[in-house]
């Protein structure tokens, strides 16, 4: 035997053994590395899902808080709380649809021990139950009694409940009273649910005034707005069924924040093993501990199949090499084949990684600690307004403007320092205009090339921010409208009393009296003040409209002379009226006011210099996209419109002025503090019209208003001639109901002066009682629409149910649209709007008694 060959044969088994051991070790290491990669990817997904679940839970709890704040705001807006308003506001929120986990919203008040009897008497009257008592029975130093609770059908047993007597609730009530902030209870048994799952109570305190110190809060404490919900329903509503199919969730309450105590079970059961994450969240002063664990369906089979496949593949390759070397045949060819196979596997792994990155909808980038873009994932031609290729290798300060770069770099540094997810919002000017972006930054677990790196996902939130801004503007205008309507109503009550006394004084004067011209001037002043109140009602959208077919071109031409004398002498007024303009349904007087306000505003913008004002009309067929772009959030439907455009070459307006242009009493002039363009907005809302304003400083302004096109003019019946003569004596018994003493007094005095007997009531409930007591004797009923306990519309229906033919006059500082429709088969009512002259009231009395 050849010695060389013998040496080879002797060394061969040891060499093959070493190759076999090395190959098996490499296969095992590869399998372990793949397993770690899969576990890391799964854990990252679990962390992402857990963060989303925790964020959604926090959002839902904040939504519950906002509901309670809304109830408190409703009570502190000057309206007060009663059962009817509480029920109406609850119904308007539609909480059963939007927040089914919220079991109830209730209102409870603090009652000292000596005040129990008086509180029980008030509750008996309101509940209509003479045997009703505060429960549980027994004398205590103080009580916290629930007065209102919604939904009413599932909370009847809660009304009158002294919640201080329930275990653990007295401490929560005192904590809410002393802190002045919303307080969340620990897990407890709630009155609205009998199941085994725990519930929670949120308490928001109410005070008289705005107390600042602990002693002031205790002295001015009124009660709490309470929200009860079941934790099971809260988790289902916040996380959704899809998230609960992915994750096992366990939540415990560790007591007040900063005062750890024994954990109390809130949701789920303790978790162990698997991809387990633990998080802590402060929820209104309490510590909630979360455990999240991925379910098997969430992780999938890739956690094991990929590592096992790599390990088995590596082992088989090793055995194959061993067999090949053992057979000493075709070693080189088989080694090349194995190399090709391993290269293909690596390419497949890289392809799978790239596909996972492409599946993410937002651009994802990897940045080092210097803010340099190392890699960008996703098929996005541009990122942050720059091509993806141009960003590679560029730092943030070079790629972005300074303001945006500072914001993003600060978030990157915080993510590197805190190892927590950071969010950065910034804006950029791109080829598509100004865009808003949201960046979410998280530190990577392993450094690259010795440098700590972060993952950055970038989302364009321009449309979302625009929608939120539209919603905020709409809510602001609606709130101002409600305020203006309430002020106008109260203002009209005062003017009614003043005008009534002036008219009565005029009747009592001797002919030729020196006071007569003074009273006429006083009457004129009151009527001018009434016009301001009508403008406020117009802004609130509750003004009265006398709607008829209106030719916009004809109306503008009739105003030509009036507009010409209303503008500055150096201003040039031109008209461009399109022939054949469609008719509109509108109140001519109010539309004239719109035109006058716009032209006057344009004249003021010219500010004594030279300039031009143009009034233009045109016919417009508007589609949905056009309306949503130029008239967002105004509820205009696609179709035909008559457009009114008023433009000027004046000073123009900056964006800040444009934001406030419709605020009541806002002006840029040195004098004049009227409602101005705010009344114009109310008029347009009442006509279902839309408005668009474009303006730039130094380049003038352009107001565009769209009125819906009207159909053919309706036929009109001739108005019946009025009957009766002013100043004649009236007879019979009249019933007058108005909660405002000044108005009630002047109406009673006037009717008695005219010869009638009068019964007076302070609200609708007393009016119905008086009418029932004098049934058959009352000849006339006068009712104010807005009254406590029972309003005028309810009293109107109740009285007509007793006597369908009784003459009724309805009075209101609002418009006739607030008047209830009379029951079928009954006589119609006559409406008189405040403020009114005595001659107008007398005419209404004679008219309604003739019907």
From TrEMBL:
SMART domains per record: CHASE, HATPase_c, REC
Chain positions with 4-aspartylphosphate modification: 784
Transmembrane residue ranges: 304-328
Species annotation: Mesoterricola silvestris
InterPro entries membership: CHASE_dom, CHASE_sf, CheY-like_superfamily, HATPase_C_sf, HATPase_dom, His_kinase_dom, HisK_dim/P_dom, HisK_dim/P_sf
One Gene Ontology cellular component: membrane
Residues of the Histidine kinase domain: 486-711
Reactions accelerated catalytically: ATP + protein L-histidine = ADP + protein N-phospho-L-histidine
Enzyme Commission number: 2.7.13.3
Protein name (Swiss-Prot/TrEMBL): histidine kinase
Chain ranges of the CHASE domain: 141-247
UniProt domain Response regulatory: residue ranges: 733-849
Enzyme class: transferase
NCBIfam families tied to this protein: sensory_box
UniProt cross-references to PROSITE patterns, sorted A to Z: CHASE, HIS_KIN, RESPONSE_REGULATORY
UniProt superkingdom: Bacteria
Subcellular location field: Membrane
Keywords (A to Z) from UniProt: Membrane, Phosphoprotein, Transmembrane, Transmembrane helix
GO molecular function: phosphorelay sensor kinase activity
């Amino acid at each position: 035997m050849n010695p060389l060959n013998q040496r080879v044969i002797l060394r061969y088994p040891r060499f093959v053994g070493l190759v076999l051991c090395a190959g098996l070790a490499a296969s095992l290491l590869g399998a372990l590395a793949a397993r770690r990669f899969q576990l890391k990817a799964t854990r990252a997904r679990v962390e992402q899902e857990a963060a989303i679940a925790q964020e959604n839970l926090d959002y839902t709890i904040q939504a519950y808080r906002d509901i309670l704040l809304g109830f408190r705001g409703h009570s502190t807006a000057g309206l007060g709380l009663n059962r009817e308003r509480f029920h109406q506001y609850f119904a308007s929120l539609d909480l059963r649809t939007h927040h089914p986990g919220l079991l109830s919203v209730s209102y409870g008040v603090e009652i000292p021990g000596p005040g129990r009897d008086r509180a029980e008497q008030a509750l008996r009257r309101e509940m209509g139950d003479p045997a009703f008592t505060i429960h549980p029975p027994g004398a205590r130093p103080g009580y916290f009694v629930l007065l209102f609770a919604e939904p009413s059908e599932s909370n009847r047993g809660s009304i009158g409940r002294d919640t201080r007597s329930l275990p653990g609730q007295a401490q929560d009530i005192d904590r809410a009273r002393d802190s002045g902030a919303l307080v969340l209870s620990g897990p407890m048994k709630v009155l609205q649910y009998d199941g085994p799952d725990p519930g929670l109570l949120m308490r928001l305190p109410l005070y008289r005034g705005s107390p600042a110190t602990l002693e002031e809060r205790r002295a001015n404490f009124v009660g709490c707005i309470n929200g009860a919900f079941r934790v099971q329903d809260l988790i289902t509503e916040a996380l959704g069924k899809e998230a609960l199919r992915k994750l096992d969730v366990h939540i415990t309450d560790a007591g007040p924040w900063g005062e750890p105590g024994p954990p109390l079970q809130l949701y789920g059961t303790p978790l162990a093993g698997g991809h387990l994450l633990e998080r802590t969240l402060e929820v209104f002063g309490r510590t909630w501990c979360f455990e999240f664990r991925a379910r098997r369906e969430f992780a999938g089979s890739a956690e094991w199949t990929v590592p096992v496949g790599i390990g088995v593949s590596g082992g088989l390759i090793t055995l194959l090499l061993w067999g090949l070397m053992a057979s000493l045949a075709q070693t080189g060819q088989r080694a090349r084949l194995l190399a090709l196979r391993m290269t293909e596997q690596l390419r497949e792994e890289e392809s799978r990684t790239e596909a996972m990155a492409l599946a993410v909808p937002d651009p994802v980038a990897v940045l080092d600690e210097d803010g340099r873009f190392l890699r960008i994932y996703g098929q996005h031609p541009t990122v942050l307004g720059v091509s993806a290729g141009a960003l590679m290798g560029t730092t943030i300060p070079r790629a972005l403007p300074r303001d945006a770069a500072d914001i993003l770099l600060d978030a990157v540094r915080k993510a590197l320092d805190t190892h927590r997810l950071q969010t950065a919002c910034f804006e950029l000017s791109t080829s598509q205009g100004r865009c808003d972006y949201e960046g979410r930054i998280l530190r990577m677990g392993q450094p690259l090339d010795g440098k700590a790196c972060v993952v950055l996902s970038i989302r364009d939130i321009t449309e979302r921010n625009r929608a939120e801004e539209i919603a905020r503007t709409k809510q602001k205008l609606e709130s101002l409208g409600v305020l203006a309507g309430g002020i106008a109503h109260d203002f009209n009550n005062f003017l009614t009393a003043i005008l009534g006394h002036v008219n009565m004084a005029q009747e009592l004067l001797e002919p030729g009296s020196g006071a007569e011209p003074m009273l006429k001037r006083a009457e004129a002043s009151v009527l001018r003040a009434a016009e301001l109140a009508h403008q406020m009602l117009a802004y609130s959208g509750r003004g009265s409209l006398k709607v008829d077919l209106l030719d916009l071109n004809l109306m503008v031409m009739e105003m030509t002379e009036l507009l010409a004398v209303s503008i500055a002498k150096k201003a040039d007024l031109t008209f461009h009226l399109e022939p054949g303009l469609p008719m509109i349904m509108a109140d001519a007087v109010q539309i004239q006011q719109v035109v006058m306000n716009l032209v006057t505003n344009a004249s003021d913008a010219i500010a004594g210099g030279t300039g031009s004002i143009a009034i233009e009309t045109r016919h417009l067929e508007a589609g949905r996209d056009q309306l949503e772009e130029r008239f967002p959030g105004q509820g205009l439907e696609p179709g035909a419109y008559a457009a009114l455009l008023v433009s000027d070459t004046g000073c123009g307006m900056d964006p800040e002025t444009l934001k406030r242009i419709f605020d009541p009493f806002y002006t840029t002039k040195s004098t004049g503090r009227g409602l101005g363009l705010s009344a114009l907005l109310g008029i347009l809302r009442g006509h279902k019209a839309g408005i668009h304003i474009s303006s730039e400083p130094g380049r003038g302004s352009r107001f565009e208003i769209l009125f819906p096109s009207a159909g053919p003019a309706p036929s009109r019946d001739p108005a019946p001639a009025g009957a009766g003569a002013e100043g004649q004596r009236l007879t019979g018994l009249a019933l007058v109901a108005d909660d405002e003493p000044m108005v009630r007094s002047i109406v009673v005095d006037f009717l008695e002066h005219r010869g009638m007997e009068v019964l007076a009531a302070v609200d609708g409930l007393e009016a119905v009682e008086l009418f029932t007591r004098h049934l058959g004797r009352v000849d006339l009923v006068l009712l104010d629409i807005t009254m406590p306990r029972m309003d005028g519309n309810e009293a109107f229906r109740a009285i007509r149910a007793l006597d369908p033919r009784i003459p009724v006059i309805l009075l209101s500082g609002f418009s006739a649209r607030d008047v209830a429709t009379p029951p079928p088969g009954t006589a119609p009512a006559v409406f008189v709007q405040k403020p009114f002259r005595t001659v107008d009231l007398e005419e209404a009395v004679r008219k309604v008694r003739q019907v």
